[in-house]
Design a protein that fits this description.
The chain is mainly alpha-helical. The chain has a domain of about 80 residues. Helix content is about 75%, strand content about 0%. The N and C termini lie far apart (about 55 Å). Its main location: membrane. Keywords: Amino-acid transport, Membrane, Transmembrane, Transmembrane helix, Transport.
């Protein structure tokens, strides 16, 4: 490893690399990734908050964006207050990643489809039939040539 020993005392690996256009592009791409990930990660919080305040069915993007500010501002505040929390982030991540990736979605699926009626009217049956019909069309089209 070129910078392995230096990373023991520096948590930012990109700061150790020589300043090149490739490193700068990597930093910009990581920032874009962070903004997109923040949006994806906060979407469930937005939905719950909008349902709580009664704006979930609102079609106005401006109202929904304004309603999301009470969710975003505390998260930004915590990010500014604790900008470098590598050890804390590692500990929390190692404890919660499997919970948030595997357990919560499985529980949400079981709760959502706990009744027979919910399982009957699910979109997955429609999606499966559309997907299966596409497969049938494409496989029959490919077999004719």
């Amino acid at each position: 490893w070129a910078f392995g020993d230096e990373l023991l005392t520096h948590s930012n690996a990109l700061s150790l690399l020589p300043r090149t256009p490739f490193r700068d592009a990597a930093v910009v791409l990581m920032l874009v990734h962070q903004f997109i990930t923040f949006g994806f990660a906060c979407t469930p919080l937005y939905f719950v908050w909008e349902k709580l305040i009664g704006l979930h069915d609102c079609r106005s993007l401006c109202k929904r964006a304004a309603a999301r500010l009470p969710v975003v501002v505390p998260i930004w505040f915590l990010a500014i207050v604790f900008p470098f929390f590598g050890p804390i982030n590692s500990a929390v991540g190692s404890l919660l990643v499997s919970f948030t990736v595997y357990i919560i979605p499985a529980l949400a699926h079981m709760i959502t489809y706990r009744s027979a009626h919910a399982r009957e009217v699910t979109i997955t049956t429609v999606f499966f039939s559309i997907q299966f019909s596409h497969f049938t069309v494409f496989s029959s089209a490919s077999s004719t040539h």
